[in-house]
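Model it.
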Amino acid sequence: MLTDAYDVEPAGRQKPIAFAGRVRNQFDRPGFDLVTAYEGEILIGFALGYTLRAGDTHWWGGVQTG
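Modeled.
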């Protein structure tokens, strides 16, 4: 059985399409980067993200740095 990162079985093509839409909006953000991992010609993993602007951390509410 194929599951996503939250151990939930994908529901048709809705999840991949929604994910692609969210990522597409991030491509032009300053600091965006995408790293992929391949085994031969098969994509086996990826990581992506972008740098937050100073002060743009409202969703980190309550997180303390060491």
